[in-house]
Amino acid sequence: MKASERRNAILKLLQNAEEPVVARKLAEKYGVSRQVIVQDMAVIRAYTPGIISTTKGYVMEQEPRCVREFKVRHTQSDAVKELNLIVDCGGKVCNVSISHRVYGRVSAEMDIRSRQDVAEFIAALNDSQSTVLSTATSGYHYHLVEAASEKRLDLIGEELKKAGFLAPLQPWEHKDKVG
User: Fold this and answer.
1) Which end of the chain has the least Cβ crowding within 10 Å, N or C?
2) What's the pTM value of the predicted model, to 2 decimals?
3) What number of CA atoms fall less than 13 Å from residue 75's CA on the CB side?
4) Contact 11/41 with Cβ under 8 angstroms?
């Protein structure tokens, strides 16, 4: 395979990938060294904007997506159900936060995009013998959720409500910020 053919194949692979693409795996796939792939990526990135090198591999920047924060409440045992509901509806859980009366707003990044991510998160939580952040606020918390469209975010909100997870807003909470 010529270098130009390999680079075109790598670009197509990146455009269709749902997770980061690791240089080592590309090297194995195309029978070249990792260094050759790194050089290929430098050439590809020179003429293709939006390719990012992360610690997990190469990714294509996605089109701007819609985000909404949802206020929810549930027990720790319902965390799996809530997170799976969001990803099953096409959402990505960007973070979790609580609004604590003493500490203020406390947030943690999540980056949960799939049922596999949910399973790994719950396993890590169980292995650490820790509790979810929302135990400090009687189960109340917020998730910043990203999706492909406002319609998709509306669906997520409807499903959270049906499941009994969507929490009522307090007077001090702005409806334009929370779903």
Assistant:
1) N
2) 0.64
3) 1
4) no
